[in-house]
């Protein structure tokens, strides 16, 4: 039967504890370790490619990338011998994997191809002397890899990749201190550096050994080297043929390296010597944990979560300056790894708290120093153990809880984190409702039912269930169960009512499983018991108890009477009521078990971080793949059975595609046409909707306002630009006209110059023709003389040839005679030499015979001596052979003893490890029991206190109840009265609300109007301030001009007094010129537009002044007229009052003398003239009081008129001080007095 396979699909998490574990394989893909996997994450497409870890290893410890980015190396830790698992499901698979098991006796380095993601090579050897590699690095030619081993040996090993053999090894830490990192020089493949606590060593690799190289940085003492990096000065070619051999590489330049130390300093080393020291931070606590290079310098990741950029300065080759710093997190978390993309578009950081942060590096200029950028891409993973995980049926989400005090909702379709909730207590368990809109979370203090809103997780109900390590919704979602110690509490989901508590376990409950129809519930505990409960009667219907086994997981099967359990006994058991149907033993403990409804597969998680797929019904065969580092804490399967999610102790979530060759799980796939689509609805509060609507309305209003404002500004800009265009056109047109005039002038000058040059050319040609004739005549004369000389020389040559021919004949004869004499002489000398040669040959033969005789004698002597020496050495050799045989026997005995001791040590270590593991398990059980006891004691105490308080409360309530019954009758009567009063009050309240709404609308309109008026007032104030300043300046200029005019008048008067004396007049005029004119005025050409604008402004101001003067004069005349008229009216009224008072006095006197006046008039009637008497009207007291009141009113009116006059005078003064004028199209230069 073919097994199903688990294909890694996506990983939520990162293993940030590994330093230097971030690399860009192309422009947008970054590779990093997560769990026991290697993840290739595309930043733009948000997709992943995953390489699973090697079986029989205990996690990834280091990774590195080749310089040409074609291969990647992964170092994995050794698993102890007794923990190794034979992977596979069949004997053939076990045999196929045996070579890996042989290699797994030592830590391994796997080489993968980047494009195909297939394993190419595996390196494993005993020279490392440790169970792990802490750091690995490729050389620049990608032919060799340097691996730094861990403790206790701390050996540095170099591997030949072609031969897959160890080249050399060397111990880097002599005091046993930790080694951190190894790097290879990018310019010299033979140069390797290693750093650690108290040392920084440099080695030169040869064909057989690692030779130490003395450097300046290696002499530093009491320093911890945290990180170092070689600067890449020139990128290597992709072709391997262009890289030189190791012998020729020794002649290359070593390059520059930078070291980070624990004092916060950066050491720049070139050629083995420290050339510069850079202080990374103000505080010594700010240490550099990672470094990477970019085009302008290098980038450092500090322990405070800040990324610093250093740029190379022009002042020196090794001078760098800090130009910017980026804060990756507000919490100040240490940066363990940092990488920048090839085209420098992305900067990715791996934080100590398992967070992965990507920042678009091209937006660096928009980031302020020590500020967290807003456009970062943050992968918010769990930072601690994942304690709970649940997968929804209707929505593609996974809910997880962790000891980092957070609850997270993941979307496994969009590969994003939808919601994050932070809480003050640790979250121990979580379960998602099948609808996907509610979650149940068990905290240390309480059990909480929460709603999943659009952007928040809101608490709906809290239950007094503490430390619930397991909770689960039923299959239909109408019930949920939660554990507390050894009790299980059952609640209804929609009423939150407790329908029952199940108590039967003697230990903590560690597993819950609902049946498919929600009629039964399976529970498993650390007491070794599994119970099946009937929900209707809340009673046990089946039970299975295995003493000594602490169950950690249980699963039920649809339409079957059996169930499955896993625990500390390392067995997968198929159980029924009180019997074990099947049991399969595993080398490692199984922590979780899940089986989908209607599936033919069963899934389990192990304490080594692996996920297994078993065939159901069980046959013992399984498929296994590495998932996490550490134990698998939770398992979940999607409703369609195509996706498996594993959560581990390292905080990572690994998702697998389930590939069943028999397609037993494809019936419920959502890829089918008839399958139900994922739910897309979300919960949201009504207040949030109202707020969003109000924000939308506000934004729409702002958009309308902005559109109006922009339209207004656009029109204003169009007008302004139109005027500017017109002015510019006029200016350019004027310049064009000027240039046309200049061109016409220049053309005219050119024509004149051409005529002048033609005339000069004709004159020059005439002069040249005359000179040419003179030169030709002189040349003809000279030629005639030279011809005569040539004929004479020709005659001399003929005579000389005849003379030299005679001399040559004589010389030839002499030479022939001399040659004959020389030949004869040399022949005689040759005969003598031949005779001497023959004599030397005979002497040589005699010397050779003598040499042969001497050699023969020496050989005989040496043979004799050799025989003697051989005899002596044979005697010594026989004795040495005897000694060697004896030593070999002793060595064999010692080796046998050593192997026996090694086996004993290994056995003892295994026994110790098992004892420690048992001790640890016992301590865990004891701690769990103690915590349970403490919790139970607290519960008992709290319940006692609650009972006491409730009894007191009941007594108080009874007493208050009696008092309240007394007031009941009174309150009923008052309620009736209040109901009668409520109706009219509600009507008044409604009217008042309408009035308030109208007043609010009016208030809004008034507020808007006031804002507009405020803007207008601000503009008017600015205009007034400008006018004031302009007026002050103008008055100052007028005052200065007045003073200057007075001085000029005085000087001119003095000049007029001396008009008769011409010399004095001239001297005085020159002084006046030097004083008033010289050096103060420059004749410059003024722009016509400025003159026009100035004339326009001056005309406007003159008209404005005239209008103001006329208005002022008219107001003055009106005021004078009013004042005069008021004075006249006052005078007339005063006169009338005076006359009335006089008439009143005369009337009183006349009334008293009325009688006597009549008698006198009758007596003198005949003798005197006729007297005419006018009757004065009588005034009563009321009339007098009215006149007095009228006079008082007139006095008040005069006072009011006086205040009005004073106010007009003040306005007149202000009008004189302020000169208002309209703002021109552009700011004009200041107006001088000379214009």
UniProtKB/TrEMBL annotation:
Basic and acidic residues: compositionally biased ranges: 1216-1226
Xref: InterPro entries: CFA-57, WD40/YVTN_repeat-like_dom_sf, WD40_repeat_dom_sf, WD40_rpt
Keyword Coiled coil annotated: yes
WD repeat boundaries on the chain: 379-411, 502-543
Region annotation Disordered: where it falls in the sequence: 1149-1168, 1216-1235
PROSITE patterns the UniProt entry points to: WD_REPEATS_2, WD_REPEATS_REGION
Coiled-coil segments on the chain, per record: 736-768, 823-864, 1184-1211
Key words of the record: Coiled coil, WD repeat
Gene3D superfamilies: YVTN repeat-like/Quinoprotein amine dehydrogenase (2.130.10.10)
Superkingdom per UniProt: Eukaryota
Record field: compositional bias (Polar residues): 1155-1166
Keyword Coiled coil: yes
The protein's name: Cilia-and flagella-associated protein 57
Organism (species): Ceratodon purpureus
Taxonomic lineage of the native organism: Eukaryota, Viridiplantae, Streptophyta, Embryophyta, Bryophyta
């Amino acid at each position: 039967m073919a097994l199903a396979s688990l294909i890694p699909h996506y990983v939520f998490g990162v293993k940030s504890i590994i330093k230097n574990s971030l690399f860009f394989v192309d422009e947008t893909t970054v590779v990093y370790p997560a769990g026991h996997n290697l993840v290739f994450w595309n930043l733009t497409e948000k997709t992943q490619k995953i390489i699973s870890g090697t079986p029989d290893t205990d996690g990834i410890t280091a990774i590195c990338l080749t310089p040409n980015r074609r291969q990647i190396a992964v170092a994995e830790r050794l698993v102890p011998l007794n923990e190794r698992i034979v992977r596979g499901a069949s004997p053939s698979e076990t045999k196929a994997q045996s070579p890996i098991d042989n290699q797994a006796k030592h830590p391994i380095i796997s080489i993968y191809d980047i494009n195909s993601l297939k394993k190419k090579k595996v390196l494993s050897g005993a020279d490392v002397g440790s169970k792990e590699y802490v750091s690995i690095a490729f050389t620049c030619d990608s032919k060799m890899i340097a691996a730094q081993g861990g403790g206790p040996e701390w050996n540095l090993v170099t591997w030949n990749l072609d031969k897959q053999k160890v080249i050399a090894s060397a111990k880097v830490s002599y005091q046993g201190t930790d080694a951190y990192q190894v790097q290879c020089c990018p310019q010299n493949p033979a140069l390797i550096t290693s750093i650690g606590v108290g040392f920084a060593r440099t080695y030169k690799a040869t064909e057989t050994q690692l030779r130490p190289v003395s450097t300046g940085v290696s002499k530093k003492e009491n320093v911890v080297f945290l990180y170092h990096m070689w600067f890449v000065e020139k990128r290597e070619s992709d072709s391997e043929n262009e890289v030189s051999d190791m012998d020729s590489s020794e002649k290359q330049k070593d390059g520059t390296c930078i070291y980070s130390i624990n004092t916060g300093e950066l050491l720049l080393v070139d050629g083995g010597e420290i050339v510069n020291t850079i202080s990374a931070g103000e505080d010594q606590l700010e240490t550099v944990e990672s470094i990477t290079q970019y085009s302008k310098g290098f980038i450092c990741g500090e322990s405070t979560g800040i990324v610093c950029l250093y740029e190379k300065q022009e002042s020196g080759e090794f001078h760098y300056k800090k130009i910017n710093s980026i804060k990756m997190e507000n919490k100040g978390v240490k940066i363990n790894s940092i990488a920048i993309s090839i085209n420098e578009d992305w900067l990715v950081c791996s934080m100590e708290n398992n967070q992965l942060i990507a920042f678009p590096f091209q937006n660096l200029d928009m980031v302020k120093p020590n500020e967290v950028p807003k456009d970062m891409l943050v992968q918010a993973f769990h930072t601690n153990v994942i304690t709970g995980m649940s997968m929804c049926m209707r929505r593609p989400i996974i809910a997880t809880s962790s000891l980092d005090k957070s609850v997270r909702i993941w979307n496994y379709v969009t590969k994003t984190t939808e919601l994050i909730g932070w809480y003050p207590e640790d979250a121990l368990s979580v379960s998602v409702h099948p609808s996907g809109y509610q979650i149940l979370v068990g905290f240390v203090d309480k059990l909480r039912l929460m709603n999943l809103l659009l952007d928040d997780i809101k608490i709906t109900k809290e239950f007094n269930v503490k430390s619930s390590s397991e909770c689960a919704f039923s299959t239909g979602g109408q019930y949920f169960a939660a554990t507390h110690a050894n009790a299980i509490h059952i609640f209804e989901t929609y009423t939150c009512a407790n329908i029952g508590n199940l108590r039967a376990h003697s230990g903590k409950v560690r597993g819950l499983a609902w049946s498919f129809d929600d009629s039964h519930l399976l529970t498993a505990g650390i007491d070794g018991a599994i119970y099946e409960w009937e929900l209707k009667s809340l009673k046990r219907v089946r039970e299975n108890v295995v003493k000594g086994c602490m169950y950690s997981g249980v699963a039920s099967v649809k339409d079957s009477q059996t169930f499955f359990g896993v625990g500390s006994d390392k067995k997968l058991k198929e159980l029924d009521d009180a019997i074990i149907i099947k049991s399969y033993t595993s080398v490692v403990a199984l922590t979780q078990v899940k089986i989908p409804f209607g599936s033919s597969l069963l899934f389990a998680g192990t304490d080594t971080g692996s996920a297994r797929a078993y065939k159901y019904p069980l046959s013992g065969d399984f498929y296994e793949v590495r998932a996490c580092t550490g134990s698998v804490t939770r398992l979940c399967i999607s409703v369609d059975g195509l996706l498996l999610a594993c959560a581990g102790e390292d905080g990572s979530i690994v998702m697998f595609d389930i590939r069943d060759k028999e397609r037993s799980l494809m019936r419920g796939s959502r890829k089918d046409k008839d399958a139900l689509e994922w739910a897309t609805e979300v919960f949201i509060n009504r207040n949030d909707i109202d707020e969003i609507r109000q924000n939308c309305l506000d934004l729409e209003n702002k958009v309308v306002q902005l559109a109006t404002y922009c339209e207004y500004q656009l029109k204003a800009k169009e007008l302004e630009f139109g005027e500017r265009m017109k002015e510019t056109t006029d200016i350019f047109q004027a310049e064009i006209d000027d240039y046309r005039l200049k061109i016409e002038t220049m053309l005219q000058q050119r024509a004149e110059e051409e005529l002048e040059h033609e005339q000069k050319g004709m004159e020059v040609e005439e002069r040249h023709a005359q000179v040419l004739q003179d030169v030709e005549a002189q040349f003809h004369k000279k030629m005639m003389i030279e011809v005569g000389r040539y004929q004479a020389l020709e005659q001399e040559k003929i005579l000389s040839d005849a003379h030299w021919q005679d001399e040559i004949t004589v010389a030839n004869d002499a030479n022939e005679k001399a040659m004959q004499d020389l030949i004869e002489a040399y022949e005689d000398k040759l005969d003598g030499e031949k005779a001497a040669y023959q004599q030397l040959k005979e002497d040589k033969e005699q010397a050779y015979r003598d040499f042969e005789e001497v050699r023969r004698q020496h050989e005989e002597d040496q043979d004799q001596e050799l025989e003697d020496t051989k005899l002596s050495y044979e005697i010594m050799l026989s004795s040495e052979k005897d000694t060697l045989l004896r030593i070999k026997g002793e060595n064999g005995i010692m080796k046998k003893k050593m192997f026996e001791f090694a086996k004993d040590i290994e056995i003892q270590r295994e026994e110790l490890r098992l004892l420690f593991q048992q001790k640890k398990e016992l301590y865990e059980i004891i701690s769990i029991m103690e915590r349970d006891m403490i919790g139970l004691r607290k519960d008992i105490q709290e319940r006692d206190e609650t009972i006491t308080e409730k009894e007191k409360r009941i007594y108080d309530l009874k007493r208050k109840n009696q008092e309240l019954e007394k007031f009941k009758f009174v309150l009923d009567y008052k309620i009736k009265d209040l109901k009668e009063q409520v109706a009219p009050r509600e009507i008044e309240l409604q009217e008042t609300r309408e009035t308030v709404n109208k007043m609010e609308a009016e208030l809004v309109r008034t507020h808007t109007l006031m804002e507009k008026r405020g803007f207008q007032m601000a503009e008017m104030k600015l205009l007034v301030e400008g006018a004031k300043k302009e007026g002050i300046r103008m008055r100052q200029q007028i005052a200065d001009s007045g003073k200057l005019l007075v001085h000029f008048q005085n000087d001119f008067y003095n000049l007029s007094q001396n008009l008769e004396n011409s010399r004095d007049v001239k001297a005085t005029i020159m002084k006046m010129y030097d004083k008033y004119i010289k050096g103060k005025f420059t004749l410059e050409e003024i722009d016509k537009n400025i003159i026009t604008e100035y004339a326009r402004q001056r005309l406007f101001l003159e008209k404005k002044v005239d209008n103001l003067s006329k208005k002022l004069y008219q107001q003055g005349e009106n005021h004078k007229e009013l004042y005069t008229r008021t004075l006249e009216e006052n005078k007339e009224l005063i006169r009338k009052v005076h006359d009335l008072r006089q008439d009143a006095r005369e009337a009183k006197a006349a009334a008293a003398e009325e009688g006597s006046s009549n008698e006198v008039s009758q007596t003198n009637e005949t003798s005197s003239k006729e007297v005419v008497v006018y009757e004065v009207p009588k005034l009563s007291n009321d009339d007098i009081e009215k006149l007095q009141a009228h006079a008082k009113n007139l006095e008040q009116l005069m006072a009011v008129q006086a205040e009005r006059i004073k106010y007009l005078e003040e306005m007149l003064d202000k009008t004189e001080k302020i000169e208002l004028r309209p703002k021109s199209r552009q700011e004009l230069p200041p107006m001088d007095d000379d214009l």
